[in-house]
Design brief:
Length: 112
């Protein structure tokens, strides 16, 4: 985990990122922007304010459980570590043709 200007995230190792990239390539959205590098833990607060037991820099395991997609983004839902988002997820792809941004992955409602 890393903390950067009031944003804490779980940074994926190379093997995990490559696995997610291969999943993203199967989405049928080759023209969308590729992401898939982190799981946001908290944005807008310091990690220490969460009072979690896991120290920054600790290696952790998370698991992708579902795939979600809408007109803005494609993401994998995760479990295994806290995220301030109601649905913890890693944004894989962002639609560059309709003004979408990675934060719009929070609007995904249907997960398979």
């Amino acid at each position: 985990m890393k903390e950067k200007k009031w944003r804490t995230y779980v940074s994926l190792d190379e093997q995990s990122r490559e696995l997610l990239i291969s999943l993203a390539k199967q989405s049928g959205k080759p023209e969308w922007e590729l992401h898939g590098e982190h799981l946001t833990v908290v944005y807008g607060k310091r990690y220490s304010e969460l009072r979690l037991d896991t120290a920054l820099g600790t290696k952790i395991s998370i698991r992708a459980t579902h795939l979600g997609i809408n007109e803005h983004c494609c993401a994998v839902r995760t479990e295994g570590f806290y995220s301030h988002h109601p649905i913890p997820h890693i944004t894989l792809l962002v639609n560059p043709f309709n003004g979408s941004s990675p934060v719009m992955s929070n609007t995904i409602m249907h997960w398979e």
